[in-house]
Structures are given as C-alpha cells and as structure tokens.
Amino acid sequence: NLNQGDNQWALRQAYVNVKNLPGLSGANLWLGKRYYKRQDVHITDFYYWDTSGYGVGIEDVAAGPGKFSYALFGNNSSNDAQILRQDLRYEGLDIGFGSLAFGLNLNQGRSSGAATAEDGWAINVQHTLGNVLGGFNKIALQYGEGSASNLVYAYPDYGANSSKDSWRITEQFMFQ
Fold it and tell me: How far apart are CA 85 and CA 103, in angstroms?
C-alpha cells in the first residue's frame, strides 16, 4: 500500500501465469499475489473459501474425471511469526446432478522468538448444481482446526491451538 494523505493505493493482484503447459494436461503455473479460486456468496461479498495471497502454484491439472490444483502461500504476522499455507483441491467431479469440489488446507506455523504461530488444517466439500432457473445452487461444508479454525484461510488464527475447531455450512441459490 502507498498512502498519501487520504488516498490509499494498493496492488490487489500482481502475478505471472503460464497457461496450457505441454505435458501437464493443459495446467497453469503461477507466481505472485492473486485472488486464488475464491468462492463467495456474491450478493453479500462473503468469501467462505478464499486462500488468496502471495504464493506459487499449479492449477487445473487433468486427473481422472476432475482437475487437481496445488498452491503454497505465506503469511507473516505483525510480530514476525509465519504460517505457510498449502491449498490442495480436486474440482469438477461430475456426479450426474451437479459437480463436487474437495479441498484440503494445511497450515504450518513457524514461531520466531516470543512470536508464535500454530499449525492447523481444514477440509472443504462443495456441491454446485448449475442451470437452476437460469442460475445455480451451491452448498459448501467446511471444518477447520488450529490456525485454520477460523475458516478464513487467507488470514489464519496465529494463536489457535489444535483444540480449537469450527464447522460451517454455506448455501446460496441464484436465479433469474
């Protein structure tokens, strides 16, 4: 961010993306800061599955009936503790009445002196049914523990230990 008086400037995304790599079934490699595969309830701007940030990854590798993606992100707290975040997804699994997406988020905390950062993990399962009254229906089930227990993957809970956990169910129905 560049602050000048009442003005605030920021680059929300700045990344390099190499698309359709031969030998990797059309996968993409990327590096930088980006909004990564965000899932939201659009009308309220509630991002329930959002691992965005600075990182590197490979996405949309054809694997059986769906596509696999892997990304590695880094977070620093204000007191120099770090959390490395891994995002693994398998998406686009057609089940006849919509498609499924599965996600595993793994956080690895790196403490620095008195600054602490805890490990954590979360799972995500999402069902999407398209072509419903000109729109779609999406339902997601999420569970997280430790630093992923807040289910806000881009901003992990540095102080949450493995005994802290949470569940969330999100559904949206968009139609025209």
Answer: 13
Which residue, among 44, 98, 105, has the nearest Cα to 69 in the 3D structure? 105
| Contact by Cβ (8 Å): 107, 146 | yes
Cα distance between residue 27 and residue 43, in whole Å: 31
Please state the pTM of the whole predicted model.
Answer: 0.90
3-state SS class at 68: strand
Contact between residue 149 and residue 166 where contact means Cβ atoms under 8 Å apart: yes
| pLDDT above 90: residue 113 | no
Q: For residues 143 and 153, what is the distance between their CA atoms, to the nearest angstrom? A: 12
Query: Would you say 147 and 155 are in contact if contact means Cβ atoms under 8 Å apart?
Result: no
Model pLDDT for residues 135-153, shown as the tens digit of each residue: 999 999 999 999 999 999 9
* Separation CA 13–CA 79 (nearest Å): 25
Distance CA 162, CA 17 (A): 35
What pLDDT was estimated at residue 145? 97
The DSSP bridge pattern shows strands 28-34 and 2-4 to be unpaired
Question: Measured between alpha carbons, how far apart are the two ends of the chain, in Å?
Answer: 39
DSSP H helical segments within 63-108, as ranges?
Answer: none
Length of the chain: 176
